[in-house]
Amino acid sequence: MSGVFGMNIKMSIYGESHGKAIGVVLDGLPPGLKLDEEAIAKEMARRAPGQSALTTARKEKDAVEIQSGFFEGYTTGTPLCARIVNGDQHSKDYSILKDKMRPGHGDYAGYVRYQGFNDYRGGGHFSARLTAPLVFAGAVAKQALAQYGIVIGAHIASVYDVQERSFNPMGESDATLQGLNAKAFPVLEDAVGAKMQERILQAKGELNSVGGVIELMATHVPAGIGAPYFDSLESRLSHVLFSVPAVKGIEFGDGFGFAALTGAEANDQLHYENGAVRGYTNHNGGITGGISNGMPLVFRVAMKPTPSISREQKTVSLSKHADTTLTIVGRHDPCIVQRAVPVIEAVTAWTLWDLILEAKKWEK
Amino acid sequence: MSGVFGMNIKMSIYGESHGKAIGVVLDGLPPGLKLDEEAIAKEMARRAPGQSALTTARKEKDAVEIQSGFFEGYTTGTPLCARIVNGDQHSKDYSILKDKMRPGHGDYAGYVRYQGFNDYRGGGHFSARLTAPLVFAGAVAKQALAQYGIVIGAHIASVYDVQERSFNPMGESDATLQGLNAKAFPVLEDAVGAKMQERILQAKGELNSVGGVIELMATHVPAGIGAPYFDSLESRLSHVLFSVPAVKGIEFGDGFGFAALTGAEANDQLHYENGAVRGYTNHNGGITGGISNGMPLVFRVAMKPTPSISREQKTVSLSKHADTTLTIVGRHDPCIVQRAVPVIEAVTAWTLWDLILEAKKWEK
Amino acid sequence: MSGVFGMNIKMSIYGESHGKAIGVVLDGLPPGLKLDEEAIAKEMARRAPGQSALTTARKEKDAVEIQSGFFEGYTTGTPLCARIVNGDQHSKDYSILKDKMRPGHGDYAGYVRYQGFNDYRGGGHFSARLTAPLVFAGAVAKQALAQYGIVIGAHIASVYDVQERSFNPMGESDATLQGLNAKAFPVLEDAVGAKMQERILQAKGELNSVGGVIELMATHVPAGIGAPYFDSLESRLSHVLFSVPAVKGIEFGDGFGFAALTGAEANDQLHYENGAVRGYTNHNGGITGGISNGMPLVFRVAMKPTPSISREQKTVSLSKHADTTLTIVGRHDPCIVQRAVPVIEAVTAWTLWDLILEAKKWEK
Amino acid sequence: MSGVFGMNIKMSIYGESHGKAIGVVLDGLPPGLKLDEEAIAKEMARRAPGQSALTTARKEKDAVEIQSGFFEGYTTGTPLCARIVNGDQHSKDYSILKDKMRPGHGDYAGYVRYQGFNDYRGGGHFSARLTAPLVFAGAVAKQALAQYGIVIGAHIASVYDVQERSFNPMGESDATLQGLNAKAFPVLEDAVGAKMQERILQAKGELNSVGGVIELMATHVPAGIGAPYFDSLESRLSHVLFSVPAVKGIEFGDGFGFAALTGAEANDQLHYENGAVRGYTNHNGGITGGISNGMPLVFRVAMKPTPSISREQKTVSLSKHADTTLTIVGRHDPCIVQRAVPVIEAVTAWTLWDLILEAKKWEK
């Protein structure tokens, strides 16, 4: 079981890369949320492929058809199903994958887990195509979070060996964060972004791929969201962030950098600022004791290089039970990082909303 | 809500640092599991404080009283409650904490979340004392995993600026991993371990604290455990690992190191070895597509320095709504890393068992 | 939240009576289950309207389009989405229902719950049309249960004042139960069934409606399915049975009849029969201590008369905040009982399968 | 798995009849709920045995020790564990039950489910003793519901062939309902209650037992609690009501009586009364479309006769794999109905609270 996520709002995803359609059922959405469908379409477009030389040549319009739960411009409060019809499929490209396991992909592990019955075409349900429904869910969540003034922005902190400045942990302006949302290649420093893009195109030219790091900041998150132990904000966020294909590392605030600090340096000492409790620093990335503390939420995720590369690689043939080689044909992203940015934002938005609803139960 | 974790086996923890007792209810345990109570006591002792100059002077025996679900030496299959009575409490040490929020702790965030009603003594439910029930749950899980031949070992990869060699991602011997379990200060290289301990004592002397990194390896994990998306092995593990106090970062396999590799370098190419599919490398730490792939499971967690230090720190007084300072008195760990090792192992064991039971549903 | 049901297999339903489509996502289905699509279509047809004078004149073909999770004739193990496009809608019939609450329906309660945002056309998400996805889920479950030899049959025990014989609690033959599945109006005694149908047509003629009782039997259910307390077989079954619109009562075995028995009469005394433990009687309907005991599972559900009747009824106008009257126009079932039979079977099959998968976790 | 119930507040029960202790962990309780411990003790006493000739001679004080989650008179919002130490056990009475299965009990079904490892003494975890933690959870919930003005009362509608008047479905006064709470043998008509008690003592004299029906009413339940389909108020309530040992039937409002009504009779027509929408009748027992509609909640549960009777009964010996007889010695309740009344109230209170918290998420 793996397709349902959330406590107070649950998303139930379905679909395979080369099936009829993919989609998601959102259960528990509050009634009366006005949905801006154009804003949703814009989020979908941010993730969609085929937009530049940096991404796969596959063209998927990712037009969302809402099936239910949406009436006269508002959520009804009953389950909202969003469906995206699959198109532009080259299923014949993939038939060899039934037998030869792609290195770095979930093919072999999935073969064992699904006893050979999973749809092998384009990775089937494992495909990053399934992140489209996540972006839809996140687009709805973002509109809900806007009611609370919460702003989410993310940038490409690094691609391979090219890296740009990190967010100021004490906070970035709304304009900066919203500006990132509007960029096709979301970076803080455009000159560095240009180098990153060069690096991606170089990898493409070499039939290779590269990974990178995405950093996200959410500001105006109220204090008191989350809990100690199993529903800590870090727990809930990391759970869904590691559900995004290719994510292999997560750190909140200083993260691995904490290991090189002493307590005296790492503790965020406190004071009042305009009547609110604030840290002098924000090493903890806005979370202490598993709960938001009113400082900006900051985390970083590491994404591995796209496993699909067009070079010959060593692998196994299951049918022959023998070693062999595989050269993956087809159209691939030399770097998944820029397309992952809206996905990372989306699952973050979904989870913040879920925990805000959790906190509402205890309101007097 | 935050106290229940697991899908097929659920643990429900309870308790506060200075309350009557802490404990855990384990629901869904298979009947007929013979429990070695001595082995459980040994695991509890690994986490318990008061064992050396490296840890807090508090002495908690952490004797577990099983209340239910255990009959004539075997689990019954009905809920097993384990209870640990609190002792050696100096509640008077903590009264000031009702008003002054400790920097780096969850005090302020928890004050908001719990509307001022949470037990502030020693951190209450936020206290790392609650990791004792986690260790108990893990000790039961480890005995179950032994049936499958799974071996879990962890070491202190670094303390502040002292670090030792990493695990060989292709696997360590059972003897090496089990040897770590037996060590009071689990390191691969004892000389480095000695330096780490020096570093901890130096921090203690300076009324300061240090953090570090723990690396865990689990070998003989069968391929096919986990799922893509929301129940990925990384998702389930990170969820519970970030529930452990002070954990601020997690990376599987190469983790953040992936960002500096190309796809050609990062992909674990495959071959048959003694009839089994194996990688030539294990950059992915034993997980691809969210599912175990038969290679050793490897991950690293970053732990921040203990926030409790005996230096004066700036903070706020809630009652006076004013800035103030706080010098925390009492007994603290100058480094939590070595005591966290069995906790990290425990929640890993619990989660692996949970996912193994998940996979059993689909057995023919 | 209300759209997700199941522990090991989860169904997530969506849709409204007059929306674009309705459907269900089935998560956790084991891979490799061969699906007979014709048999599924047959189950869908049993519930579909427009087949005789006994039911509403609405015609819905209820053709199921599987979107995902089904590949080359087998379930993949990843989420299976089934979609049914809505057709033959007369949305204009329903506009008055935004204001005037239909007596006996969930209109007013739903108005409050959904704050006036729910789709009022034809009951929207409350519509019994949503039982079509339940029948689909049950049709899949029935094919899985067939592997275990489990046979499920149900009959119309009564319609208004016409009642037929009950099942023999000691068991009915497979032929009898399967024969019921094949009948358009499933009764044990056709002569009584004819009277029931007359009674329904009489109600229709009088612009009225009638209810009734459905009795279900499942044979060859293995002993050991269920649990004491919260996952008792009665708990899980009643949960989902009361989710079926119009169900207002449930009794297992002798049910309310137990109140008129002494313990000496009511206890099912035991003996061995062909090596298996069996009761001399089956007052408990195959469940003791919340767990199946190897005897036939027997329960009865009471269904209220269809609330939609074409007579003038007293009700309220929300817009005018005043008393008024309402005459519901449109096409309605004078009796929902016969169409509910496959729904009752479906949710039972789903739940039995869920609990069988639960038990598999503990297999050695 | 079976020990955890609830969505927004979860209770996790543990314990066996003859183990060390039984108890419950309540997770998700809102912080700041002032608990009246005396009122809790009074509820516990209502269920406790040994109070009259009508009940078992076993004496269990059922003194609750709160372990956590309760601080300075208020709930903290962190898990609250309540523990009840077992006492007055005659474990030797029960040893034969390892081999001989008691008719009417869950012994054989449980033997299969738990593979022979469950604690057979006094029914172990299956024992109705586990309803003590349910009463505790309900006592907490009742105090929360009092904030909303909700009043819950229940009476013994029948014992064997003796029955008293039903609740007026349009509502009973607070005084009537609260008066029932205060009675040792809760009936509306004391003369009928005396006959019921005679009937119970007669059964006791005949080494026999009797069952009965409990009817519950909750008034001042706000409209809008519950949902269509899987979280219908009927679904959630029946789920937990069937978790109470010996419950075999449930009906809401007219329940099985609906089958004998026409739609014109059964529909609760509506009007305004003091500005609120009310039914002219309340056949639906306060629930339409799965959601509370503002009318009194009314339901009835059927309880079977206590299976433990001191007559010789036919059963099987598992060790000899042969038919045999069993005469159960020990102390038993000739009727469980009166002791079940506070349990039925308790699980109802818990579930209403859970669904009220659910509704709070959608408050503006």
Structural class of chain A: alpha+beta
Low-confidence stretches of chain A: none
Largest interface: A-B, 114 and 114 residues
CATH superfamily of chain A: Chorismate synthase AroC
**Helix percent band of chain A:** 25-40%
Order of helices and strands of chain A: EEEHEEEEHHEEHHEHEHEEEEEEEH
User: How would you classify the quaternary structure?
Assistant: homotetramer
Strand composition percent of chain A: 15-25%
Task: Provide the CATH top-level class of chain A.
Answer: Alpha Beta
In angstroms, what separates the terminal alpha carbons of chain A?
Answer: 36 Å
Number of distinct helices of chain A: 8
What order do the helices and strands come in, and which of them pair?
The structure is a homotetramer of 364-residue chains.
Chain A: E1 4-5, E2 10-14, E3 21-27, H1 37-47, E4 64-66, E5 70-71, E6 74-75, E7 80-85, H2 107-113, H3 131-146, E8 151-159, E9 162-163, H4 174-182, H5 190-205, E10 212-219, H6 233-241, E11 247-252, H7 263-266, E12 270-273, E13 276-279, E14 287-288, E15 291-292, E16 297-303, E17 312-317, E18 322-327, H8 337-360
Antiparallel strand pairs in A: 1-2, 2-3, 3-7, 4-7, 5-6, 8-9, 8-10, 10-16, 11-16, 12-13, 14-15, 17-18
Helix pairs in contact in A: 1-3, 1-8, 3-8, 6-8
